[in-house]
Design goal:
The protein is built from 6 helices and 10 strands; from the N terminus they run βββαββαβαααβαβββ. With 228 residues, it is of the alpha/beta class. It has a domain of 156 residues: Rossmann fold (3-Layer(aba) Sandwich), CATH 3.40.50.300. Bound molecules: adenosine-5'-diphosphate and magnesium ion (MG). Adenosine-5'-diphosphate (ADP) binds next to helix 1.
Length: 228
């Protein structure tokens, strides 16, 4: 699903590489946790894999596509159709309902909308799959942090992505609520044939997934174990 070779990343104006030659293979259906201290480059790596940052060196291939060489239009399509992205801070729009937030995914990138009724039905379906049946018409401002994160997961799933990327999905949640989100991810992973890559900073709620990758000093180390 993901094949990365010699990935280096340096932000403009900086003297050091954040990522110093990352090599990584993730098979379809894998559930991988990416850990490391704050500032080690987890978000940087997720952004690159998610097609949000294409200013890097090395080769990044996802689902058979060479991300670095995609034209704008294909990159937009890649972001919309192949990847679901859950950001740390939810990124929900407060003035839209839950269903509208979730259906926003239909409008990302090229192509455009395709029938409000169908979008609404799909939004309700994914909201139900994250345990929020009946929340379609509520505003995110009325929801708890855990519920907001579920809406963000629902939105990421809207277009039936093959790859789900999550940036510290439990970062803003208490331990119990974060644990519920991790349980939800495990369930979705087994039910939806998803490949999942989820970042967590050191000291956060325990990692999930079958593989644990650690970024340290710009490099990747793997610990194979049954994490959870
Ligand atoms: N847009 C940016 N411009 C310059 N430096 C950045 C930018 N984004 C992140 N960095 C730096 O890159 C390093 C890795 O950041 P990040 O990927 O956000 O780490 P993590 O997600 O593991 O906390 C940090 O030192 C951070 O300060
Ligand atoms: Mg981060």
């Amino acid at each position: 699903m993901i094949r990365i070779n010699g990935l280096c990343k340096r932000y403009p104006g900086s003297e050091v590489d954040v990522l110093k030659g990352i090599d990584l293979e993730i098979a379809a259906g894998d559930f991988v946790s990416l850990v490391g201290r704050s500032g080690c480059g987890k978000t940087t790596l997720l952004n690159i894999v998610g097609g949000l940052d294409f200013d890097f060196e090395g080769r990044v291939e996802v689902d058979g596509r060479d991300i670095g060489s995609l034209a704008d239009r294909d990159l937009a399509r890649y972001r919309r159709d192949t990847v679901g992205f859950v950001f740390q801070a939810y990124h929900l729009l407060d003035h839209l309902s839950c269903a509208e937030n979730v259906a926003l995914a239909a409008r990302f990138g090229a192509g455009g909308g395709s029938g409000a009724k169908r979008e609404r039905a799909r939004a309700e379906e994914v909201l139900e799959s994250v345990g929020l049946a009946g929340a379609a018409d509520r505003r995110p401002t009325r929801l708890s942090g855990g519920e907001r994160q579920r809406v963000a997961v629902a939105r990421a799933l809207f277009n039936r992505p093959r790859l789900l990327l999550l940036d510290e999905p439990t970062g803003n949640l208490d331990t119990a609520t974060g644990g519920e989100i991790l349980d939800l991810l495990s369930t979705l992973h087994s039910e939806m044939a998803l490949t999942i890559l989820a970042a967590t900073h050191d000291g956060a709620i325990e990692a999930v997934g079958r593989r644990l990758l650690r970024i340290s000093d710009g490099r990747l180390a793997e610990r194979l174990e049954d994490v959870r």
